[in-house]
Write a structure and sequence with these properties.
- The complex is a heterodimer of chains A (206) and B (145).
- Helix content of chain A is 72%, strand content 0%.
- By secondary structure, chain A is mainly alpha-helical.
- Chain A has two domains: 1-102, Orthogonal Bundle (Rna Polymerase Sigma Factor, Chain: A), CATH 1.10.1740.10; 105-206, Arc Repressor Mutant, subunit A (Orthogonal Bundle).
- The longest helix of chain A has 23 residues, at 26-48.
- Chain A is globular and about 55 Å long.
- The relative contact order of chain A is 0.10.
- Chain B is mainly alpha-helical.
- Chain B folds into three domains: 5-40, no CATH class; 46-94; 96-144, no CATH class.
- Chain B is 76% helix and 0% strand.
- Chain B has helices spanning 5-10, 21-40, 47-87, 90-93, 99-108, 112-117, 122-144.
- Classes of the chains: A mainly alpha (206), B mainly alpha (145).
- The A-B interface holds A 24, 26, 29-30, 33-34, 37-38, 40-42, 44-46, 53-54, 57-58, 61-62, 65-66, 106, 116, 119, 124-125, 128-132, 134, 137-138, 140-141, 149, 152-153, 156-157, 181, 184-185, 187-189, 191 and B 2, 4, 6-7, 10, 26, 29-30, 32-46, 49-50, 52-54, 56-58, 60-61, 64.
């Protein structure tokens, strides 16, 4: 209904948005897709390490549609959706592992023509990779475990609070903090080592 | 080497401008890596992907509605089947419609018992009494013969 749409756009709170989702109203799902599909896709790309994540996004969206009636509002809607996204990514990764398919790695993408030139604002990328070896970063990201990439994505890119990340991955806040600190350290070491795990080598030597 | 102090600046627990030069440099270096990662993991859903999702939603809603309807129809059908199998048509007309027992009461027993057996209104009861009187007269006459 158009009047509901207007009402929502003018600042209807999350609760009534959830109610609209529960009623299965199409405008609510359009809004949900516009707002969350980029975030879900970003999480999937970080976790899975490949670009073709449309299926994962669709699966997450359908799980939201099927599960929204059971959503009691104990957590924020965004936290709940992130949790679904992480679970779907885990399932997708397990399926891939079972099939023993070869992943399209970050580095392979670049070699196959997927470079930062594909981004709309290439000047931003140029600025970002200034004084850095782009290939080293890609290799480092590839080497980093999916869980570490996910933590960095959620906290350092999406800016989600530690408390919400703890709810998303189902671990205590302290564990999330220490794991993220380790992931940051690891990422920097991998970049400096040109994608090689120098940290582990130095640990073994010492 | 990684300086753990960078974490508190990355977590906005402290102002990076107050940090020493080494920590500041490491902070900027890490932020640049993150910027590249951000651009690399950026996802822009296509219009067709959104349309596909909305089509799935529409189909799922129709299926859900059909499932609810078929469940309701199934439940009503089940109740009817159970009702018919338990009591037959008597389920709808009461239990005490056994014609032979009613007629034997009418002829041989006290008519007041009839009221206990079936629910009938006073007009019907009066016509029943008149019929019973006639039958009794006929019985006396037939006994005389």
């Amino acid at each position: 209904m158009w009047w509901r749409r207007v009402k929502t756009k003018e600042g209807e709170d999350e609760k009534s948005f959830i109610e609209a989702l529960k009623r299965g109203e199409e405008w609510a799902y359009e809004k949900l897709y516009d707002e969350y599909a980029p975030k879900i896709g970003g999480i999937a790309k970080s976790y899975l390490g490949y670009d073709d994540v449309d299926d994962v996004v669709q699966e997450v969206m359908m799980r939201i549609f099927k599960g929204i009636r059971n959503f009691r509002g104990d957590s924020k809607l965004s936290t709940w959706i992130h949790r679904i996204a992480v679970n779907v990514c885990k399932d997708a990764l397990n399926k891939k592992k079972k099939k023993k398919e070869v992943f399209t790695s970050f580095v392979d993408d670049e070699e196959e023509g997927y470079s930062y030139l594909a981004f709309e604002d290439s000047s931003l990328v140029e600025e970002a990779v200034e004084e850095m070896n782009y290939s080293s970063i890609m290799k480092a990201l590839e080497k980093l475990s999916p869980e570490n990439r996910l933590l960095i994505k959620l906290r350092d890119i999406d800016g989600i609070s530690y408390e919400d990340i703890a709810k998303v991955i189902g671990k205590p806040v302290g564990t999330v903090k220490s794991r993220l600190h380790y992931a940051r350290k690891k990422l920097k070491e991998l970049v400096e080592g040109g994608g090689r795990d120098v940290g582990r080598q130095s640990e073994q030597v010492s | 080497m990684w300086d753990d102090r960078v974490n508190k600046y990355l977590d906005d627990e402290d102002d990076i401008n107050k940090a020493d030069e080494n920590v500041k440099a490491m902070f900027i270096y890490y932020k640049r890596i993150i910027r590249v990662m951000d651009l690399r993991t950026e996802y822009k859903p296509s219009r067709s992907s959104k349309e596909q999702f909305l089509r799935k939603i529409r189909r799922a809603k129709v299926n859900r509605r059909l499932r609810n309807w078929s469940l309701a129809v199934g439940a009503v059908a089940a109740v009817l089947i159970i009702a018919l199998s338990l009591g037959g048509f008597g389920f709808f007309h009461g239990k005490n419609t056994n014609v032979s027992s009613v007629s034997s009461v009418a002829v041989n027993e006290d008519l007041s018992k009839l009221k206990d057996m079936v629910n009938i209104n006073d007009d019907v009861m009066r016509s029943f009494e008149r019929t019973a009187d006639t039958l009794q007269i006929l019985q006396i006459v037939s006994d005389g013969f």
